[in-house]
Amino acid sequence: MAHGSSWTKDQVLFLIVLKLCSKHRWKQTAEILRQKFPGTTATAKDCESKFNKDLKKVVERDWIEKFKADAVIPQEEAGRRVIAQLVVWLGEMNAEDRVV
């Protein structure tokens, strides 16, 4: 994040969910992320860079993409937890903002 702050696991997962499962642009994504995680200073550019560079090949993104495309639930316990969190966060999102 800006000024050398590190991303938490929950922030990373939330960013992946927002970008893969919502219609939000980067500015909105950063605003929602800051609301969800008070004290976070991520800008639109921070979110875009993190998603496009660091999160291209993380397993959590793969699990969410497979779940979204084919309703595949991972065999791994960690993957099942990621999908469960995805469902919770999608439930908190306005229906018109979702892309599923």
Summary, kept brief:
By secondary structure, this protein is an all-alpha fold. It has one domain.
Descriptive report:
With 100 residues, the protein is mainly α. The protein has one domain (2-92). The chain is built from five helices and no strands. The chain has helices at residues 9-21, 26-36, 44-54, 59-70, 77-92. Helix 1 crosses helix 5, helix 2 (26-36) crosses helix 3 and helix 4 (59-70) packs across helix 5 (77-92). The N and C termini lie far apart (27 Å).
The pLDDT mean sits at 92
Major sheet: size, sense and barrel closure? none
**SSE run:** HHHHH
The share of residues in extended strands comes to under 5%
Query: Runs with pLDDT <50, length 5+?
Result: none
Distance N to C terminus: 27 Å
Question: What is the element layout, followed by pairings?
Answer:
Layout: H1 9-21, H2 26-36, H3 44-54, H4 59-70, H5 77-92
Helix pairs in contact: 1-4, 1-5, 2-3, 4-5
Name the features.
single chain, globular, 100 residues, 5 helices, 0% strand
